[in-house]
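Fig. S4 source data, part A: sequence.
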Amino acid sequence: MQCEGPDVDRIILPEMPLRARVGVSAEERASEQEIFVDVELGLDLRPAGTSDDFGLTVDYEAVCEAVAAVARSRPFALIEAIAEECARVVLTAFAVEEVRVRVRKPGALRSRGVPYAAVEVLRRRG
């Protein structure tokens, strides 16, 4: 199934608060900072929806843990790299056709009065 457009079924896991060592400078990466990650999974939910069978959907908790493991895995210079790695892991580990990942870093542009910096990636299987 190609998951494109507004008619795609989605599982939405918004605003996961995570801790990550992320920043361009070594000083920023020296300590963990709070980031927020949104994950949207694109897949056909009809089999699970019509059967009410947990085995025919994606385990939300397992997706959250996989994303958290990425954030903890190593220091990152860029939130772009966190988003890309989260998307890769989700597509590899779960039966989804596409994944959208948003990573927000509060305070990244505090001196400019911007509440957060964010990136979003959309990756499809194949």
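Fig. S4 source data, part B ends here. The longest strand covers residues 10-20.
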